[in-house]
Amino acid sequence: MEYTDLLERQIIGRLRVDNPWWTEGEIPSFYREMSPRLYLDIFYPLVTDIALKRAVILMGPRRVGKTVMLYHTIQRLINDGVSPQNIIYISVETPIYNKIYLEQLFNLSKQTLGKPENDNEEYYVFFDEIQYLKEWEVNLKSLVDTYKNVKFVASGSAAAELSKKSNESGAGRFTDFSLPPLTFYEYIHLKGYDNLMIIRPMKWLDGLVDCYGTIDIDKLNGLFLGYINYGGYPEVVFSERIQENPGQFIRHDIIDKVLLRDLPSLYGIQDVQELNSLFTMIAYHSGGQFSYEAMSKESGVKKELLKKYIQYLEAAFLIKVIHRTDDNAKKYQRDISFKIYLTNPSLRCALFQPIKVTDEGIGDMVETAVYAQWIPRQRTDISFANWRLSKKEQGEVDIVGIDPARQKPLWGVEIKWSDRYVQHPGELNSLLWYMQNNGLKEAIVTSQTQTVDVEMESVVLHFLPVACYAYTVGRNTLEHNKSFYGL
Fold it and tell me: How large is the average pLDDT for residues 424-448?
């Protein structure tokens, strides 16, 4: 038997294994028993829009549930009446598929199903981990142009590189969709604690908005701490065994694969130890202010190389750089200082150890957790304000929202893990200065347990527990992203 015939038979055998619904009529029970991500309700309509001749590119960091979402999408298609034999799943990173074009894999799948090569049936074709195929974007664009009755879906972990190639080669052919780590809203939902939350409408910016409170703040705070330590990845949420040693799961299966394999192969990084050391330092100080000058002196790495490393870490969805504005919402011409946040706080726990409420770094991790609810929000630009309040004191507001048209502040939020400021609001010097300087009549200040409005002269400070605020922002981010995709 010739090698090519043997290889083809092996590929067909693998396709049968990877597509059990061709014979069973449903996805494996292992996936059926998992709770779907809430983002599936946004992703699924993009997949089923056959009329839109675009492939959907599912992007996100490792282990956030991209493959599981593909399986849940497949099951929902079957439930909605699509023939299981018109749904094809191909994991591109499977070694036997190495250097084989996507079209060839698609045609071999149809051959396996006994379908004619040039039929006009509708198909849904899923290519998982597509970044492992060289020039995937050219392959996929050709498929979209050639097969008008087929909806192609691809997933990948190297998000920025996927997005870049998607924009360059797939203009008008690809729709990008980002799946973030779990938000606190999703975490509460997956853990089955939705009944802890109650809607508390709040007057905000001349309107009434849905804000969420809780019937048991102590229980919610315990869940919030669990989210900070273990809550970014669905597998960790549901596995007590993994929680006993999250470092082994997250560090080896997520961080090491990204730092030691994905980024070096994509960007030709020579010194992976240097990159690893930089990320470890950033993770420990998540939420802190950084400058290339100080980082270069401390690490001995040249500033230009540091800039590239940080871009790479952002590309892998491990960190997010947040730029600062001054007390008038103006961006600094020389942006020498910025903040860096982990995209989800449980990365720090994996590298070091679980954080406790009494630990010194709890404030920064609470702030990181809040930013993790904002980061996935599509086309929403948030920043922090930082300026010289006096000769000896810097002024700062943790999160500010800016009107992009007028370049004026719309709102400000101060993140605190303490009830102290409910009784001593006058100590919030920076926030009060910022509000007065920009004509803001109200602001949000988070607390540990207290929900109360405090009026001071001509302004109102809305105090609410930081866990409730994180839940509200996570929920609103999901709703915002639905609107972004026209749902």
Answer: 96
Residue 335 near residue 353 (C-beta atoms within 8 A): no
Query: Identity (one letter) of the amino acid at 366?
Result: V
Lowest mean pLDDT among 36-45, 257-266, 313-322, 462-471: 257-266
**Beta strand 394-403 pairing with 382-388:** antiparallel
Check: CB of residue 326 under 8 Å from CB of residue 386.
yes
Q: Is the pLDDT of residue 1 over 50?
A: no
DSSP of 262-330: IHHHHH--S-HHHHHHHHHHHHHTTT-EE-HHHHHHHH---HHHHHHHHHHHHHTTSEEEEEEE-TTSP
Instruction: Tell me the C-alpha distance between 181 and 202, whole Å.
Output: 28
* Two tokens, residue 72: 């849940």
pLDDT in tens, 140-183: 999 999 999 999 999 987 654 555 555 555 557 899 899 999 99
Mean pLDDT of 65-86: 96
Q: What is the pLDDT of residue 420?
A: 97
Average pLDDT over residues 222-246: 84
Give counts: helices (H), strands (E), the chain.
Answer: 23, 16
For residue 436 the two structure tokens come to 């007065």
Sheet of 394-403: strands edge to edge?
289-290, 338-342, 319-325, 382-388, 394-403, 408-414, 442-447, 459-465, 452-456
Task: Identify whether the C-beta of residue 341 lies closer than 8 Å to the C-beta of residue 286.
Answer: yes
- Using alpha carbons only, give the angle 252, 158, 65 rounded to the nearest 5 degrees: 65
* Residue 211: count of CB within 10 angstroms of its CB: 22
- Determine the pLDDT at residue 171: 59
Q: Cβ distance 303 to 294 under 8 Å?
A: no
* CA terminus-to-terminus distance, the chain: 53
Find, among 104, 97, 86, the residue nearest to 48 by Cα. 86
CA angle in degrees (0–180, nearest 5) for 378-402-198? 65
Residue 427, both tokens: 């100590």
Asked if pLDDT for residue 439 goes beyond 50, the answer is yes
Beta-ladder partners of 385? 325, 397
Query: Which residues, at least 6 apart from 86, have a Cβ–Cβ distance to it below 8 Å?
Result: 121, 122, 123, 124
What number is the average pLDDT over the span 316-324? 91
- 3-state class (DSSP) for residue 375: coil
Handedness of CA 303, 160, 339, 400 (dihedral sign): positive
Q: What is the pLDDT of residue 2?
A: 55
What confidence score (pLDDT) does residue 363 get? Answer: 95
In the sheet with 123-128, reading across from the earlier edge strand, the strands are 87-91, 123-128, 150-156, 55-59, 174-178
What does the alpha-carbon distance between residue 174 and residue 152 come to, in Å, rounded to a whole number? 9
Q: In this structure, what token pair is assigned to residue 258?
A: 């990204």
